[in-house]
């Protein structure tokens, strides 16, 4: 049997450099970090990961939405400790450039409004 390949599409692969022992899925949406949260179309820099001092990891959009809800009371959805962002560098293996800590507020998407002032 002879097979001829007429065309093919290349696919790039990468993964987040997460802290040792951390889960590889978002604790809120339960999607793997190599995927995207429900608000993003593509994985990577547009769907960054935020790590709490408690070492739980979340998509930035997921944890921002959680923390803005009244029921969260500013606590981690996994361990219920007061959620504070861990000041650490998260790198994508696609790039050796260190990521700065994720923004405290999610980027506004079309159709959403913000009540916070500009800084």
Automatic annotation (TrEMBL):
Keywords: Cell cycle, Cell division, Metal-binding, Mitosis, Ubl conjugation pathway, Zinc, Zinc-finger
Classification via CDD domains: RING-H2_APC11
Gene Ontology annotations of biological process type: anaphase-promoting complex-dependent catabolic process; cell division; protein ubiquitination
Ranges for region Disordered: 89-119
Alphabetized GO MF terms: cullin family protein binding; ubiquitin protein ligase activity; zinc ion binding
Cross-referenced InterPro entries: RING-box_E3_Ubiquitin_Ligase, RING-H2_APC11, Znf_RING, Znf_RING/FYVE/PHD
One Gene Ontology term, aspect cellular component: anaphase-promoting complex
RING-type domain boundaries: 37-80
Pfam families: zf-ANAPC11
PROSITE patterns noted in UniProt: ZF_RING_2
Biased composition (Low complexity): 98-119
Name of this protein: Anaphase-promoting complex subunit 11
Native source species: Pseudocercospora fijiensis (strain CIRAD86)
């Amino acid at each position: 049997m002879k097979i001829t390949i007429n065309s093919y599409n290349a696919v790039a692969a990468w993964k987040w450099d997460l802290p040792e022992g951390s889960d590889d899925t978002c604790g809120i949406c339960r999607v793997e970090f190599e995927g995207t949260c429900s608000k993003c179309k593509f994985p990577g820099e547009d769907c960054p990961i935020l790590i709490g001092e408690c070492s739980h990891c979340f998509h930035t959009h997921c944890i921002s939405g959680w923390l803005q809800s009244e029921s969260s009371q500013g606590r981690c959805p996994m361990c219920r400790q007061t959620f504070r962002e861990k000041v650490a560098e998260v790198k994508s293996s696609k790039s050796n450039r260190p990521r700065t800590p994720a923004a405290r507020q999610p980027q506004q998407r079309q159709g959403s409004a913000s009540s916070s002032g500009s800084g």
